[in-house]
Amino acid sequence: MGPSVLSSPLGHKTDYVSSYDPGLLFPILRQTSREILGITSALPFFGCDIWTGYELSWLNPSGMPQVAAAEFIFPCDSHFIIESKSFKLYLNSFNQTVFNSYADVTECLKRDLSLVAGAAVNVNLQQLHESLLLINQVVMGVCLDGLDITVNNYHPDPTLLTNDVNEVELEEELYSHLLKTNCPVTGQPDWASLFISYSGKKINHENLLRYIISFREHQDFHEHCVERVFVDILNRCKPESLSVYARYTRRGGLDINPFRSTREGERPSVGRLLRQ
């Protein structure tokens, strides 16, 4: 068992240190939330959590500041997620710390994050002039946000999910920019774009959008919200294959983008969006 989230730095006044301190990282056990969804043994999905760090800096041996953007990829079968404020505090501890090279910083981040998460974490550092940091606005699929619907439920309700009455078999890529959830500790709003790719009987678009909007007052961590969406669609609509991906807006220089799929080895194609 990991420590309680109530003992994390989230929601509390904290000191920002600028000397390297891996002890700042705070783990949160994944399994506690998964048991609520009925996941007690084998995971019904594959996937990862893709974090982007926009505020990473350290000193080179000459005392010159170095800056980079970082991508952190946590496997979804790690025992722990890392609480986001503690992650920010940890990254700040690099600010006045000397490293010999980008490679040394990368290896340090991999080592510390893997140890706390309980699984191998991949880390990619990018210099700010590199093209991969550009906003990716090429989004494939059907946007649900223009549907003319009435909404009166703002708490997750899986019974909203239905297949289309015609039960047409197809493959679809759907997305919405209307996902809003809330931090389970501070209550602060978390905004996201949600991408759903599936094959099987057609999912009713209007009811899917109602379901996405029903998270508007829900309090939970990003990773847990995406897993709830995945499990609810899988159980209610029974697709042959399913992928669910959320691109959350950043807070404290970090964004968190969980991806879950029935297809092992699949990775999402959508990168950084306008709001990120």
Characterization of this structure:
This protein is an alpha+beta fold and 276 residues long. 20% of the residues lie in helices and 29% in strands. The two termini are 33 Å apart. It is elongated and about 70 Å long.
List strands and helices in order, with pairings:
Layout: E1 27-29, H1 31-36, E2 46-59, E3 65-75, E4 80-82, H2 84-92, H3 102-117, E5 122-126, E6 142-143, E7 169-182, E8 189-201, H4 205-213, H5 222-237, E9 241-248, E10 254-261
Parallel strand pairs: 6-7
Antiparallel strand pairs: 1-4, 2-3, 2-10, 3-5, 7-8, 8-9, 9-10
DSSP strand tally: 10
Beta-strand fraction estimate: 25-35%
Helix content: 10-25%
What are the low-pLDDT stretches, counting only 5+ consecutive residues below 50?
none
Q: What spatial form do the alpha-carbon principal axes imply?
A: elongated
Q: Number of helical runs? A: 5
Main beta-sheet annotation: 8 strands, mixed
End-to-end gap: 33 Å
Kindly report the oligomeric state of this protein.
Answer: single chain
Determine the mean pLDDT. Answer: 92
Order of helices and strands: EHEEEHHEEEEHHEE
C-alpha Rg, in Å? 19 Å
Side by side, the strands of the main sheet go 5-3-2-10-9-8-7-6
Structural class, please? Answer: alpha+beta
Question: What are the main properties of this structure?
Answer:
276 residues; alpha+beta; two-stranded antiparallel ribbon; 5 helices; 20% helix; elongated
